[in-house]
Amino acid sequence: MDFDKDKFYLGKLCHHNHKWNELEQSLRYCSINRCVQCIKENRPTPEQQRAQYQKNREKRLQTAKKCRDMNPQRVKESQKKYREKNKEKIKAYMKKWEETNKEKRSDYHSKYYSENSELISERRKSYFKTEKGKLTARRTSKRRKARKRGVHLVNYTDKQIRERYEQFQNSCAYCCKNVKLFRDHFIPVSKGGPDCLGNIVPACLICNSSKQNADPMEWYKSQEFYSLTQWKKILKILGKTELNYTQIPLF
Fold first, then answer.
1. CA triple 152-202-109, angle to 5 deg
2. Would you say 201 and 176 are in contact if contact means Cβ atoms under 8 Å apart?
3. What are phi and psi of 89, to 5 degrees?
4. What does DSSP say about strands 8-11 and 26-29: parallel, antiparallel, or unpaired?
5. Are 203 and 182 in contact (CB under 8 A)?
6. How does DSSP assign the chain, residue by residue?
7. What are the tens digits of pLDDT across the range 135-175?
8. pLDDT confidence of residue 186
9. CB 161 within 8 A of CB 183
10. What is the pTM for the complete model shown?
11. Which residues of 214-224 are buried (b: 16+ CB within 10 A; e: fewer)?
12. Each residue of 195-243: pLDDT tens digit?
């Protein structure tokens, strides 16, 4: 029987007389100079390993954290190497996790957006000033224009948009923040929503980015800033009700 010479070697017989291939020698690990068979026989069962881990869990976590803090560059390189080697595995795991934790994922993103709105806004501004960001913006704009050409379209004027903003006191229709506003298609264009005044409300960058192509009612009700009064106001201005809020407006 062959063995890996980089990992094992034949040494003196161990105390338990574990002979390798009937020879008067034991197969030993090069790294720790111990008998392979002895280690296998003394190895704890999976149940014992789990019990031992739970018993020393806090201590192990603290030791691991201390090690990471002392070697940040090494940890970063190790994580990068692991991600590159296991791209498909990580992708499959994340897809499965997102499918089984939709509410948890939505709550996490909503909380993160609300707590870091200014930071996210600054990051976006910095990103779109770079060459890569400008290229991304152009591609996104082209895709959006292509989608708009494929849906119902009714032209509207800048004056009508200003009046629509004033109906919401020049604040975000969803979170009510008085910040820079963008035109949000209440029923997403990607879901067949028309590009017309009856489908447009003002939204801040955070809400507009977070909502994307989600169902407006489901998305809004999952936000921390959800308000029944504000939701009814949005529906009233758009000429909708709880029962027909997904109805496609014609103008």
1. 100
2. no
3. -65, -45
4. antiparallel
5. yes
6. ----TTTEEEESPPTT---STTSSSEEEETTT--BHHHHHHHPPPHHHHHHHHHHTHHHHHHHHHHHHHH-HHHHHHHHHHHHHHTHHHHHHHHHHHHHH-HHHHHHHHHHHHHHSHHHHHHHHHHHTTSHHHHHHHHHHHHHHHHHHHTS-B----HHHHHHHHHHTTTS-TTT---S-EEEEESS-GGGT--BSGGGEEEEEHHHHHHHTTS-HHHHHHTSTT--HHHHHHHHHHHT--TTTTTSPP--
7. 788 767 766 766 666 777 788 888 898 999 999 999 999 99
8. 94
9. yes
10. 0.49
11. eebeebbebbe
12. 889 999 999 989 998 898 899 999 999 999 999 999 999 999 999 998 8
Q: Amino acid identity, residue 247?
A: Q
Token pair, residue 152, equals: 């119902």
CB 20 within 8 A of CB 27: yes
Q: Do 35 and 19 touch, CB atoms closer than 8 A?
A: no
Closest CA to 208 of 243, 231, 180: 180
Q: Which two tokens stand for residue 25?
A: 């020698």
What is the phi/psi pair of residue 121, to 5°?
-60, -45
**22-31, Cβ contacts within 8 angstroms, sequence gap of 24 or more:** 27/3, 30/6, 31/7
Q: Look-up: residue for tokens 């957006």?
A: 113
